[in-house]
UniProtKB/TrEMBL annotation:
One GO term (biological process): protein processing
MF annotations from Gene Ontology: metal ion binding; metalloendopeptidase activity
Keyword set includes Lyase: no
Occurrences of domain Peptidase M13 C-terminal (ranges): 521-719
Superkingdom of origin: Eukaryota
Any matching Pfam family: Peptidase_M13
Cross-referenced CDD domains: M13
Name the record gives this protein: Endothelin-converting enzyme
Keywords of the record: Hydrolase, Metal-binding, Metalloprotease, Protease, Zinc
Similarity field: Belongs to the peptidase M13 family.
Requisite cofactors: Zn(2+)
Gene Ontology cellular component terms for the protein in this record: plasma membrane
Limits of the Peptidase M13 N-terminal domain: 67-459
Species whose genome carries this gene: Lepidopterella palustris CBS 459.81
Length: 726
């Protein structure tokens, strides 16, 4: 019924002719061929809009470009003609454009009076709902009050620095943790991969030491500039009497700044490669507290757990993300003086909270961060965009409630459910025909797909964001004032730490979400065996629209859905069984077959490059990006099969201005449009170092090269996929 409704507003125009893309090894030409009958043409406003988006994104001379050999330019060559990077942007894409549209809607929400509740709502707690809205507006107002923030200067930062000083290493790390600042090692509470219904304590290497990734410490020019930035910031803080007195004399010397950066470099060199931090096989190492304390005796895990966990909780077990890193840190600390160690802690506070103050003292740091991403050093986003991001981080579920009211209908949620169910059905069919899997593994794989939980739109239990009383209770301990921005941010940081560690000793809450409703993203949670799609990514016209031909939504959102589901069987997700336990449920024959095929992806994507720091080619890390690349390929294949099945039941109409493309080709264009974008050189380099996702152009070229359906649709000379798992 929902599928039929998609065409109820179309004006149907019959066509007797069609333009066909005919490809030869040199170029692609368009020629008329007589075919009859042709599918009807949808002329609704939504279809015209969708059609114009595709036409704008296509290269202006796409009819002279071979889609088989120059895929990205064919599909996205026109994107840059309508988009540009603002001085404050390191990159932009179809995703970021959709996110910015969502931010604009949210601005209209928080800057308007309380909107009230829908008359049809089952909840009638108008007072609680308005209280929540006032808290949201107060948090936004405090962020927008730049005059008050400027008048406060570095005063709030001084108070926090004073609290951190004079403590031993363990107490300092604990105080930093309570304020949302990571240093030396990251302690957190999360589902136990081997027993996901229980919460365990983890300690892992921090994702960022100081500079964005370890490669930057090998760039002498960047390191020297980084030292100059630290010197400028600390000199200004000393002048403002913001640094504790016992550190002012130390920071006044260049040698001290050098020693802090050298300390960071040693920590960075000890850190495992980013692909190890993504692999459960590498990061899941259970130890007793006694055993772990021998690795890093200077940092007491027992003390941190006792300070943060509920009073009735006790454990003798901790998951150590990298034992080698912990042992190396212990040796580094032994050889480093206390002044340098605590100077490093002070600098972590400054880095973490610099964006929460307005003062010339921290300006060099903000300029340096911009420069590392290729932005204008003095640029910053519009203040309202910054503040929408802040309230999404700090009071995200309240913001989600008012976003859903404006941007996500019941029909949209139902359509999402249909697409994802279709994807699951097709993936099960794919598994049944996967001959390199043993019968037993194939059977368990199908069971795992059946068990995957799909969450769409927004949470309805933990918390139920549409229940004002529950939402008010969720944030009751967060104190927000409309004139104390820095204080608000610290209050939220403490709230989040407290909420996380309060889970210890309780069963895992499988109703929680890791992303707020406006988020333009999605994820697969291996221990929860769940795929999650916030409402933010289910928006027209780029990814999702129930009112246009289904190949568009299946090509974009459907491929995203299939991508997340495919993560259940990628290089990391395959280690989790039918209910989300990390265990060896694949036999050796299937593992070997998988690894042989996965190596093809490693090599394929390792051949993609971006201009490096010295303008020499910088290769994509095929091992780091392996899971995402496998998911892209699997997601596209499942989505295409799901759409073809739907199209047989309720055939799609064509789009105006695009009659020379087949529906199969339009599906592929819709997928490719999802990743159109542009990236500054510096931002691209940073992502190569640390991002498990391939560059956007590679996600188009590589994924479509791995699709037999794409090569068939465009009649490519070579039809076999470059790499194939599913």
């Amino acid at each position: 019924m929902l599928m039929l409704a998609a065409f109820s507003s179309c004006t149907v125009v019959p066509h007797e002719q069609v333009l066909e893309v005919v490809t030869d090894p040199k170029h692609s030409v368009l020629q008329w061929n007589n075919f009859a009958p042709e599918p009807p043409v949808c002329m609704s406003a939504s279809c015209v809009h969708a059609s114009s988006e595709i036409l704008y994104n296509l290269h202006p001379n796409y009819d002279h470009i071979d889609p088989c050999t120059d895929t990205y330019q064919f599909i996205c060559g026109g994107w840059s003609d309508r988009h540009d990077l603002r001085p404050d942007q390191g990159d932009a894409s179809a995703l970021s454009a959709m996110a910015e549209q969502g931010q604009l809607l949210l601005r209209h929400v928080v800057e308007a009076p309380y909107p009230g509740y829908e008359a049809s709502s089952e909840y009638k707690s108008f007072a609680a709902d308005e209280d929540n809205f006032v808290k949201l507006k107060d948090a936004y107002a405090a962020c927008m009050d730049e005059k008050t923030i400027q008048e406060a200067g570095v005063g709030p930062l001084k108070d926090l620095l004073s609290e951190v000083s004079g403590l031993n290493i363990t107490e300092t790390v604990l105080k930093l943790m309570e304020n949302g600042v990571g240093a030396l090692a990251s302690f957190y509470a999360s589902g136990d991969d081997r027993d996901p219904d229980k919460i365990a304590v983890f300690v892992t290497p921090p994702r960022v030491i100081g500079l964005p990734s370890k490669e930057y410490y090998d760039d002498a020019k960047i390191v020297e500039e980084y030292k100059e930035v630290i010197a400028k910031v600390t000199t200004a803080l000393i002048s403002a009497k913001a640094l504790p007195a016992e550190y002012s004399d130390l920071w006044a010397t260049k040698s001290f700044t050098d020693s802090v950066v050298d300390f960071e470099k040693k920590l960075s060199q000890a850190s495992p490669p980013p692909e190890d931090l993504e692999s459960v096989v590498k990061y899941y190492n259970p130890y007793s507290l006694e055993e772990s304390s021998k690795m890093l005796p200077q940092l007491s895990a027992s003390r941190i757990i006792s300070a943060l966990a509920p009073s009735n909780f006790s454990t003798d077990r901790i998951i150590v993300g990298s034992p080698d890193y912990m042992k190396s840190v212990s040796k580094i600390l032994e050889k480093t003086d206390n002044g340098t160690i605590h100077g490093y802690f002070m600098w972590k506070v400054v880095q973490a909270y610099a964006s929460s103050v307005e003062d010339s003292a921290v300006k060099p740091l903000m300029q340096f961060k911009n420069k590392l991403q290729g932005k204008d050093p003095d640029s910053s986003p519009d203040r309202w965009r910054t503040c929408i991001s802040v309230v999404d981080q700090d009071l995200g579920w309240i913001l989600s409630r008012f976003y859903i009211q404006r941007a996500f209908s019941r029909e949209a949620k139902e359509f999402g459910d249909v697409i994802i169910r279709d994807i699951k059905d097709q993936f099960k069919k794919t598994l049944k025909s996967t001959d390199w899997m043993s019968d037993s593994v194939r059977k368990l794989g199908i069971e795992k797909v059946n068990n995957i939980v799909q969450k769409i739109g927004y949470p309805t239990i933990s918390p139920d964001i549409m229940n004002p009383d529950k939402l008010k209770e969720f944030y009751h301990s967060v104190s927000v004032d409309n004139s104390t921005f820095f204080k608000n941010r610290r209050a939220v940081a403490k709230f989040e730490v407290s909420r996380e560690w309060s889970k210890l000793g309780k069963p895992t809450d499988r109703n929680e979400w890791d992303m707020t409703a406006p988020t333009v993203n999605a994820y697969f949670n291996p221990p929860g065996n769940e795929i999650v799609f916030p409402a933010g990514i289910m928006q027209a016209p780029v990814f999702y629209d129930p009112s246009v031909p289904q190949y568009l939504s299946y090509g974009a959102f459907g491929s995203i859905s299939g991508h997340e589901l495919s993560h259940a069987f990628d290089s990391s997700g395959r280690h989790y069984d039918t209910i989300g336990n990390y265990t060896n449920w694949w036999d050796n024959e299937t593992i070997n077959a998988f690894e042989q095929r996965a190596q093809c992806f490693v090599e394929q994507y390792g051949n993609f490059t971006v201009p490096g720091p010295d303008d020499k080619p910088l290769h994509v890390n095929g091992r780091l990006t392996l899971g995402e690349n496998i998911a892209d390929a699997g997601g596209l294949g499942a989505a295409f099969a799901a759409w073809k099945a739907r199209d047989e039941l309720t055939p799609d109409a064509k789009l105006p201005g695009l009659l020379h493309f087949t529906k199969e080709q339009l599906f592929m264009l819709s997928y490719g449009n999802s990743w159109c974008g542009m990236t500054r050189k510096e931002a691209a380099i940073q992502r190569i170092y640390q991002d498990p996702h391939s560059p956007k152009f590679a996600r188009v070229i590589g994924t479509l090269a791995n699709s037999r359906a794409f090569r068939d649709a465009f009649k490519c000379p070579v039809r076999e996929p470059t790499c194939k798992l599913w």
